[in-house]
Amino acid sequence: MDQSATKNTAAETVTVITGDMLISDIVETFPQVVDYLIAEYGFHCVSCFVSSFEALEDGARVHGIVGADFLEMVDNANMIATGELIYP
Fold this sequence. Notes:
With 88 residues, this protein is mostly helical. The protein has one domain. It is built from four helices and no strands. The chain has helices at 23-29, 34-41, 56-62, 67-82. The longest helix has 16 residues, at 67-82. It starts with 22 loop residues before the first helix and ends in a 6-residue tail after the last helix.
């Protein structure tokens, strides 16, 4: 099964976005997370030419989004991508 489309137990968030996914793939597949990444994290990588060959975790690290902050970003992005969380 593709790592980018796995489902955990019912009590956990469905994982559709992972740190090893290309930023451009996330933008294309889950456009509903773009505003969240930009507004909450200043993650303008979503529109950068580098996004087509840089993974989410690598882009986040460059901008100082690491550790718990990165995990929170990915968790929230997954909830937005799956409709569990509606971002304004």
